[in-house]
Amino acid sequence: MSTPRFLTLPGTVRSRRLATGRGRFAVLESTPPAAGPRPGTAVLVPGFTGSKEDFIALGEPLAGRGFHTVAVDQRGQYETEGPDDPAAYTRDALVEDVLAIADVVAPGEPIHLVGHSYGGLVCRSVALRAPERLASLTLMSTGPAAICPPEIERLLLLEDVLPVLTRQEVWEAMQAVELEAGLLPPADPAIAAFLRTRWLGTVPTGLLAMAEQLRSEPDLVADLAAVVAAGLPALVVSGVEDYAWPIPWQAEMAARLGVPHVVIPDTHHSPNVEAPDATATTLADFWTNAAVYPDRV
């Protein structure tokens, strides 16, 4: 789980509901100053138990480089509503959501797509489905296939308790486990309250669907490599270590894709939170150099 360092919206960032053909999505949108050229729009997709706030610190530095960014709560996450229906959270459904968001925030233009953790699996599926809709793809702190075995065990435990306990009871149990492991809650009470509110606001059916996908994801790197070879600019970004997908897995994925692997110093699973300026610079440099390919079919 990513823990934002602050919640006060920077000057370029606003919170709003985005109306699309697939419903309304809660987003944090950062718009650069009116003057000057805008090199593109980026859509930022969070991971399992995450939210748009995982990217709150990226909006302003990316706006400073001229980029329009839209960080989203996926269907059923935090402030985006979702039904109690597993069909709403299939990978195909979440891909359609991202494409619908792209239609609204960058009509007629390809987007830079960034997926963090589980969001990276969703964004990979978007690239496989509709590569012509993308100006680039960034996979951040995500891997080639299913999450690592210790995390699979944690997901199976969560899948066991979510149907029989309330979200509050599950939250209290998770907090107890973290305390036992020596992981203290955030010192800022506002951040601690936000984490609880976000958890309670996320639809359990969506969590169950995402958990199942995380532990059963097939290796689709070869399929994505074919799309990259056909012209899709792509990048792998990670911290120096990662509990979900070990860094050697991520490095090997980048090598198989034939794309750069950028390691953000002094970060772990969430470079977007832990070193936002360095992460924003990495993204903006990559996007600036990424080619847009109008002739893709």
UniProtKB/TrEMBL annotation:
InterPro entries for this protein: AB_hydrolase_1, AB_hydrolase_fold, Carboxylesterase_BioH, Epox_hydrolase-like
Q: Which GO terms describe its molecular function?
A: catalytic activity
Offer one Pfam family short name for this entry: Abhydrolase_6
Protein species of origin: Embleya scabrispora
Domain AB hydrolase-1 residue range list: 43-280
Highest taxon of source: Bacteria
Name of protein: AB hydrolase-1 domain-containing protein
